[in-house]
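Re-run requested by the PI after the first attempt was lost when the workstation crashed. Everything re-entered from the original request form. Ligand of interest: inosinic acid.
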Amino acid sequence: MQRKENGVQRVLIDASTLDKRITELAAQVDSWYLDSTPILVGVLNGAAVFMTELMQAMAIPVQVDFMAVSSYGSSTESSGVVQILKDLSTSIEGQDILVVEDIVDSGLTLQYLLDVLARRNPRSIRVVAMLRKVKPGAIAVPVDLVGFEIPDEFVIGFGLDYAGQFRNLPYIGILSPEAIMAKPGR
Ligand code: IMP
């Protein structure tokens, strides 16, 4: 039978390590907003799992909204072209915004998002990213909090996909070269 683990070369960050780190991130984020109710802006689809876990681990009241931006399609390389596929449902003017990202790779997506959001005059914008790739040539986009710095390899699971699959793995894994070769339509 086809299993969701097929295509994982190895586990990079296991479920309990993720869980522990998210608890730490949540405590740090809580300390930023002792006197306000931030709007958490999750970046779909990849950040859905991280967003869910993070907000449940937080102690302060929050509001939640989502944006969807184009990512890589079904490739493993950034196209450099970012497009808003779904916008926020509310105004963020005068609000404290916490952008919740799954992974910062080249930094292009986040840089674009931060530009778009800053033009809407929020009171503050901060960013928490579950993963950041250590990558020569990446844009030096500011990220206030990073869960894990990871090597420059294509990862899947915990919300992250390859060709639309693997988001429901409960850990972060490295995609196997065979899975890249086996991509539908390749
Ligand atoms: P960036 O614009 O290159 O920083 O890429 C950001 C987006 O690309 C992320 O929000 C992900 O959706 C996607 N992405 C980048 N690297 C990976 C990866 O290793 N696995 C899965 N998705 C990735």
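Saved to the shared folder this time. The CA atoms of residues 134 and 151 lie 6 Å apart.
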